[in-house]
Amino acid sequence: MRLPRTVAPLLAAALLSVAAAPAAPRHMPPPLPLPDRMADTGGGSQLITAQAPDTGSTTGRVTWWERRAGRWTEAGSAPARFGAKGLVEGAARQQGTNTTPTGLYDLPYAFGIAPAPAGTRYPYRRVTDASWWCQDNDSRAYNRWTQPLAPDCRPAEAEHLVAYEAQYRHALVTGFNYGRPVRGRGAGIFLHADGRGATAGCVSVPADAMAGILAWADPLRAPHIAIGTESGATALTRY
Question: Which residue from 73, 74, 95, 71 is spatially nearest to 83, judged by alpha carbons?
Fold first, then answer.
């Protein structure tokens, strides 16, 4: 059957329009939570991630996660600060460089100038005027809390914890260079409350977030902290 002259062009145009129409977008599944994309999360059911855009960054984000029924879910998040000189691979870090070491670390215990936040389950050491953290490479107390200051630890090579009223209001010790300390690699790397700006190598978050992390963290769930960047050789997904 021959179509009327007025109908044929309209039908042809309609067919061309259908052919040129873009295909309906495919449904893309949501991205996996960050812990599911990591090589290792420490084996526990709680995890803190501290992620910077790149190694030159001094800011980023800390997120705390928990695993229940086989799934990682976000429990909280806060802006983070890193070392004044950025981040560096933990195994290659050198002391005194103001860099934050990347890697996956356990969290041995908590401490603070203020009382432990309500609900804190971590072992918590209260800072006094006699509390120091030794960073003296020649001391047997290297990278350890010492109270009073160890005789072989020079005061100039140690942090008098009570002097850092804002930063050490609440803090968690990280396991960086802690189990078997390597002299010259670095000491006193903590997750602590914010000071005035970038850190000397620690990770810091606002004071209310730090208190919230201590109230959330459960040592029976073996929490770890993973520090890294969004991509590259120090990407969080490598750890």
Answer: 95
The structure tokens listed for 94 are 């050198």
Mean pLDDT of 21-32: 68
SS3 15: helix
> Taking a C-beta distance cutoff of 8 angstroms, is the pair 176, 187 a contact?
no
Q: Which helix (H) or strand (E) holds 164?
A: none
The residue type found at 25 is P
Model confidence at 7: pLDDT above 70: no
Whether 176 contacts 90, CB under 8 Å: yes
Peptide bond into 148 cis (omega under 30): yes
Q: Contact at 8 Å (CB) between 134 and 146?
A: yes
**Positive or negative CA dihedral for 214, 219, 222, 225?**
positive
**212: helix, strand or coil:** helix
Inter-CA distances, 154 with 127, 140, 202, Å: 19, 11, 22
For the record, the structure tokens of 201 come out as 């190598």
In this structure, the number of other CB atoms found within 10 A of the CB of residue 97 comes to 16
DSSP 12: H
The token pair at 33 is 């939570």
CB 104 within 8 A of CB 114: no
Adjacent-strand bridge partners of 172: 110, 191
Tell me the torsion sign for CA atoms 164, 167, 169, 175. negative
In the DSSP assignment, the letter for residue 184 is T
| In the predicted structure, residue 18 carries a pLDDT above the cut 70 | no
Q: Is the pTM here over 0.90, yes or no?
A: no
* pLDDT surpasses 60 at 113: yes
- The average pLDDT across 126-141 equals 98
